Amino acid sequence: LQIIAILLALATYTWAVLYYAQEVIYKPFCPRLTTPDTVHVWDKVEFNPQLVNPVTPGHDHPLLGNPTPEVDANWSALLSAFANRIPESEVRRLGMEADAIPFNDGEGGYLVGLAMVHNLHCINCLYQVAHRDYYYTPNTTEKEDATQKSHIGHCLHHIMESVKCQADLTPVLLHWTLHDFHSVINWDGVERTCADWSQLMDWGSEHSVGKSTSISQFTDTKHPIYGNFLNEHGKFSWVDQEGGVNYKEFFKTPEYQKWAKDQGLALGEAAAEEYLKSFYVKQ
């Protein structure tokens, strides 16, 4: 019994030391410990040294080159790779199941993405603004311009917050160059620690909604209200070219009012809001 007591004491002491090291010493510095691994990304993705590529992308860059249908297809493939499915148990670990989107295709789970995808979406938004002549009609309205500025402001703010949150502490030196009258950063030979992008893409592919044979973004996970008003291309018909919607006007349309009546809903935004809140309770 004395030996067992000693072994239990040693095990308890070891556990306490390891727990203290994780929670107090390493957790403030290690993202693997601070990020809840509810989607098992940390299990799959390694972080390795990588040289910075200082070369500005050329016109043939697959994502940042001159706009073409191929570039748009590359962006679509990149962003859609991270529309993923995770089990209900992992959503419950986050404590967010009451306001998450469940799949209704018989396979279970919830729709999830990764925060970095929003950064990529915002970069794509800024890319399109940089090539405005290709992506936008020449005669946008004042309201559409205001919507675009608001979206750009949102994206700039989100990217800035992400940069501050994930502050890259890689030291870089400055040097003189022949064609700059002031000192500039010398990126040559700079090495930093980066996620293995191929492993991350593999994870996205493994968990992608697109791998399901029965799932459809516009059926099994469609918006409880707006998903009932999709055009033949599966898009919400009231979206303008800037991605904006005049919701007040939408709720006044005969189409919505008929749908609301069929659902037993009162007219107006307040009733629609209550319906949306109760949708998760019904699942």
UniProtKB/TrEMBL annotation:
<comment type="similarity">
    <text>Belongs to the ustYa family.</text>
</comment>
<protein>
    <recommendedName>
        <fullName>Oxidase ustYa</fullName>
    </recommendedName>
</protein>
<keyword id="KW-0732">Signal</keyword>
<dbReference type="InterPro" id="IPR021765">
    <property type="entry name" value="UstYa-like"/>
</dbReference>
<comment type="pathway">
    <text>Mycotoxin biosynthesis.</text>
</comment>
<dbReference type="GO" id="GO:0043386">
    <property type="term" value="P:mycotoxin biosynthetic process"/>
</dbReference>
<dbReference type="Pfam" id="PF11807">
    <property type="entry name" value="UstYa"/>
</dbReference>
<feature type="signal peptide">
    <location>
        <begin position="1"/>
        <end position="16"/>
    </location>
</feature>
